[in-house]
Amino acid sequence: MKDDEHWRERLSPEEFHVCREKGTERAFTGEYWDCKEQGVYLCRCCGEPLFDSGTKYDSGSGWPSFYQPADAEVIEEARDTTHGMVRVEVMCKKCGAHLGHVFEDGPAPTGLRYCINSLSLRLDKDATG
Ligand code: FE
Questions:
Q1: What is the CATH number of the domain that holds 117?
Q2: Are 71 and 64 in contact (CB under 8 A)?
Q3: CB within 8 A of 122, min separation 6: which ones?
Q4: For this structure, is 115 an active site residue?
Q5: Backbone phi, then psi, for 108, in 5-degree steps?
Q6: Residues pairing with 61 in the sheet
Q7: Which domain holds residue 82?
Q8: Which of 16, 18, 102, 124 sits 20 to 30 Å CA-CA off 89?
Q9: What is the total count of domains within the chain?
Q10: Given 43, 45, 95, 115, which residue is catalytic?
Q11: Cβ atoms 84, 21 nearer than 8 A
């Protein structure tokens, strides 16, 4: 796993805060919450393909929302009890980047809502899932 110094050199302060310090961008402010373009959403830190645009939906939350990851193997989950809530944090398994959280109020077919920060993602419009 790369250290903080590695990522500080490569990420903007905002990206670093969200991806490496488990921050959260303000709702309805990110690059992708309302994005309907096709492609594959990559980890902004390491480029791993994380979510396909075909599984993205409008959750009304103000954050990009997906009902499943591109591959179950690319996501790591952890119990998060900060901010007085019990949530399930999701991270990039390859580089440990904080992505967001997963909730059980999503649409069919999974019933899951992966609520992800735009700052943790980079849309590759040329890729297909
Ligand atoms: Fe990553």
A1: 2.170.150.20
A2: no
A3: 41, 42, 43, 44, 47
A4: yes
A5: -60, 150
A6: none
A7: 4-124
A8: 124
A9: 1
A10: 115
A11: no
Q: Are 117 and 25 in contact (CB under 8 A)?
A: yes
Q: What is the pLDDT of residues 44-81, one digit of tens each?
A: 999 999 999 999 999 999 999 999 999 999 999 999 99
Q: Looking at this protein, which amino acid is placed at residue 47?
A: G
- For residue 120, is it within any domain? yes
User: pLDDT value at position 12?
Assistant: 98
Domain membership flag for residue 73: yes
How far apart are the CA of 44 and the centre of ligand 1, in A?
7
Gap from CA of 51 to ligand 1 centroid (Å): 12
Give residue 28 CA to ligand 1 midpoint distance, Å: 23
Ligand 1 mean position, distance from CA 125 (Å):
18
For residue 129, pLDDT beyond 70:
no
Q: What is the pTM of this model?
A: 0.95
- Is the separation of the CB atoms in 66 and 56 below 8 Å? yes
Query: How much is the CA Rg of the chain, to the nearest whole Å?
Result: 14
